[in-house]
Design goal:
It comes from Actinomycetospora corticicola. By secondary structure, the chain is an all-alpha fold. The protein has seven helices and no strands.
Amino acid sequence: MRTSSNPAFRNLPTSPGGYARFGDAPAGLGGAFGGGPDGPMGTAGVADRPLTVDDVVQKTALNAVITIGVGVAAAILLSPILGILGFIVGLVVSLIIIFKQSTSPALVLTYSVSQGLALGTITGFLEASSNNYAGIGFQAIVGVVGVFIGMLVVYKTGAIRVTPRLTKMVIGAAIGVVVLMLVNLVVSFFTTGGIGLRDGGPLAIIFSLVCIAVGAFMLLLDFDQADQAVKAGVPAKFAWYLAFGFMTTLVWLYIEILRLLSYFRGD
């Protein structure tokens, strides 16, 4: 399986050397993988059966809906405390999931709820700050959905093939973007506007477009990683882990699209 730019998708168990594929069951397990002396197919528990595309789609959709729903509520409540709490909890939970390679539904759902609180609070305060920003949150969501569908079509049609070289390029670009963000943040402590990557000017617009492009290609790599996981026959419980990976990319895209829209709709 290829290495993804998304840290949440790294080191998933694979076959060979990991979990068996359909039809590759070892002796004595024929019943659990397609019939045989041990019993009919489907006797294995849900956690033991191989992952399917539906598993990934359902878990990802559930988490996305939860994040949006909580985000709408947070935008209405406009509580800074809830927003800060969401950021902190989201960061801690994401680190736990990534480093422990956790497939816990509770942790993944907690991450989605926390991101909803954080992003909803930011969006709510942005919309409340000026009439120019009315409806910007909905537009950002539409933008994310558009990028998601577009990259899915690109992946399924093979218009852009995910190769080891492309993977390395996307990872390198993502690291570069994050480094520039950190540099801009540090410089902003000493000079107004930092190095101009987030001040709403022409350079900031270009940088946001680059960030969105990197996020889109990260999404492309995530599609491939999920596809490889399904083909490798990893256990169905890893659908939660994959859903978490998709959510981290979608959150990245939402933030960058929201920021770009704010540049064009600002005073």
